[in-house]
Amino acid sequence: MSDLLNDFALEFEKPVRELEKQIEVLQEAEKKSDVDISGEIKALKKKVSSLVDEIYNNLTPWERVQLSRHPQRPHAIDYINKMITDFHEVAGDRHFANDQAVITGFGYLDGKKVCVVAIEKGRKTKDKVLRNFGMPRPEGYRKALRVMKTAANFNIPIITLVDTPGAFPGIGAEERGQSCAIAENLAEMFDLKTPIISLIIGEGGSGGALGIAIADKVVMMEFSVYSVISPESCASILWSDPKKAEVAANSLNLGPEKALELKVIDEILKEPTGGAHRDKTKAIESVSEFLSNEIAKLQNLKLDKLLEGRYNKFRQMGNHTIQGL
């Protein structure tokens, strides 16, 4: 618990954090005296558990966005380091540069060879700058496609980990064909002759996320968000004021339940109580087990059925029946 208490707390998490501090103080006091206060500690722990359930089961859309960006939430690199053994990173798009916002490479998941394509935001300031705050440039998408094509050539399953507010909108990125790079990924990923699983682990923003999320199975973690635009960008466009991001978030239906209802995703992956940042080990173990099982299922499908299912899944999105026509 001591590590948890030193972590950053969002505003709505602070009541829980205060109780946890009280528990830590009581536990330290109990060690230093002969007084039995285990009953008080047990009661506080029960109160914490009840409060956590109450808070995280009643999150507003904006609180969900904040939680998806929590500084202590596991990042793509954490999943790679803990899940993938003997990981060898592949760098460069063979055209311009190596985009550090996108991590690509090969390794083993439960002893089976896999290809990993992940968007990494960075945690400390220097690393955030290096990773461009998780906003890939066109060379990142081209690198991702190059590596995924290599994986398909050797029938190696592909795992993509999505965590981005969106593709980088800078002038240089646009000059180098940002929209074309994303569009090419969308088209090419439909034809990759190997299983693909895409997992939104934090933010899934706009085409920046979709550029690596054309998959046979698209899954959102319980406290992740997936949207056509980030709340800040939406507020900037509608009201010329990014400070109205909370208002935008409340209108965007960012959570996984709506995405599942609209068949934008196939499944919601439960997180530890209170979010993945409260128990990183358990969260990563859960993701690892899920991915391993799903890859095995997809590999049992015939290739033509796999590709047909992938194509039809995305073609069916947005279909509506108008009465009287």
Structural description of this entry:
- With 325 residues, this protein is α/β, with parallel strands linked by helices.
- Helix content is 49%, strand content 15%.
- The chain contains 15 helices and 8 strands.
- Strands 1, 2, 3, 4, 5, 6, 7 and 8 form an 8-stranded mixed β-sheet that branches.
- Helix 10 links the parallel strand 5 and strand 6.
- Helix 11 crosses helix 12 (245-252).
- The longest helix has 20 residues, at 280-299.
- The protein is globular, with a radius of gyration of 21 Å.
- The termini are far apart.
- Mean pLDDT is 89; it is low at 1-5.
| Distance separating the two termini | 60 Å
Classification by helices and strands = alpha/beta
Unreliable sequence segments? 1-5
Shape: globular
Element string (H = helix, E = strand): HHHHHEEEHHEHHEHEEHHHEHH
The number of distinct helices, counting runs of at least 4 residues, comes to 15
**Per DSSP, what share of the residues sits in E-state strands of 2 or more residues?**
15-25%
Q: Please compute the radius of gyration using only Cα atoms.
A: 21 Å
Main pleated-sheet profile:
8 strands, mixed
Q: Helix coverage percent of residues?
A: 40-55%
The beta-strand count equals: 8
Give average pLDDT, whole number. 89
Describe how the helices and strands are arranged.
Layout: H1 2-5, H2 14-32, H3 38-56, H4 61-68, H5 76-83, E1 85-90, E2 102-109, E3 112-119, H6 125-130, H7 138-153, E4 158-164, H8 171-175, H9 178-189, E5 196-205, H10 206-210, E6 217-221, E7 225-227, H11 231-239, H12 245-252, H13 256-261, E8 267-269, H14 280-299, H15 303-315
Parallel strand pairs: 3-4, 4-5, 5-6, 5-7, 6-8
Antiparallel strand pairs: 1-2, 2-3
